[in-house]
Hints:
Layout: H1 2-5, E1 9-14, H2 17-25, E2 34-37, E3 45-48, H3 50-53, H4 63-69, E4 74-76, H5 80-95, E5 101-105, E6 108-112, H6 117-120, H7 123-138, E7 142-147, H8 150-157, E8 165-167, H9 173-178, H10 193-198, H11 204-209, H12 212-219, H13 223-230, E9 246-257, H14 260-280, E10 284-294, E11 299-310, H15 313-330, E12 336-347, H16 351-355, H17 361-376, E13 393-394
Parallel strand pairs: 2-4, 7-8
Antiparallel strand pairs: 1-6, 1-7, 2-3, 5-6, 9-12, 9-13, 10-11, 10-12
Helix pairs in contact: 5-7, 12-13, 14-15
Amino acid sequence: MRRSDARAILHIDMDAFYASVEEQDRPELKGRPLIVGGTSGRGVVAAANYAVRRFGVRSAMPMREALRRCPEAICVQPRMARYKEVSEQVFTIFHEFTPLVEGLSLDEAFLDVTSSQQLLGSAESIGSEIRRRIVKQTGLTASVGIAPNKLLAKIASDLNKPDGMCRIGADNMRDILDELPIEKLFGVGPKTLPAVHAAGIRSFGDLRRAGDEVLWRAFGRRGKSMRSLASGVDDRPVEPNREEKSISAEETYATDIRGVAALTVQLLRLADKAASRLRAHELAAGRVSVKIRRGDFTTYTRQRTVEPPTQETAIVSSAAKALLEQWLATQPDAAVRLLGVGVSDLQTLPQADLFAGGLAQSSRLDSAIDGIRDRFGSDMLTRASLLSRTPSGSDP
């Protein structure tokens, strides 16, 4: 731990963020079991407030299961624009304390406040003041973990939720970590947990003390690295300029869909969304992928490179359509419950590449459509190729 002891890392996690924003905007919802998420038959829980969590409702749970557990729950559709607005307020507060802010999502970030302590006080004082300002400016609460590295800070923020703060340091690290259930360790999921338990590992302490043979049975080649994590070792820096690695749009359908025509229309809608998000981030993609989940939950991914990298809807759509057609050739009658289009290998296009020789017709069309949507809303304008009756779905 020597390389990490001098660092002061905060992990700040907003409490039930989407649901808390809804409660703040609609006070009549406070204290009542509230679920934010798609309300179709195949919708999933995007967020659950603490009143409904008592019934076992959790994020990513199918909505049907959530309502089975808590039939009286109130369900509201996500309002992403509003959540982004509040998130910007919260991240503005973060940057008042340090430029080293690594956002993980709208409601979660790492902050390196090592150099801020001389001017602003201890990491605990900084964490307390950040929580106070968040409440004052947004009415929302946040939980803060304080530690010498990112791994421990993230673990700490989860130990005193909601609206709490926890510090893990050299003086208490072993006592805290050794008692934690092994499923709280990053990399131990539902698929690996049975093998880990079968090897006799049920806590961080068990893993830290495990011999090499036990490690191999539980984790294979990852054994020694997993033991290091259970020992609290993590030298990763906070990366304030971490680039987005991929952009995607996907949709789960209330009713399985099948057939080339119906699936193509849905796919092109998603390609349009993904390309639009590329342009909003001023990026170009060198790879296009499609995600296909059949009615039996079997999931397939297909991808291809795009040269030169692009942000044009027409090119992204063409690549995605070709990938879908290749997949359909092997199982033309498959019923599909989810489709997705992703773009990756992202890069910023030089200004000269964007405008050399003037914009192509497709680029001018994209720019015009983006402008209209920005001004009047994303549903104001639809491409003619997408005009078709389509199944309802939920966009996660």
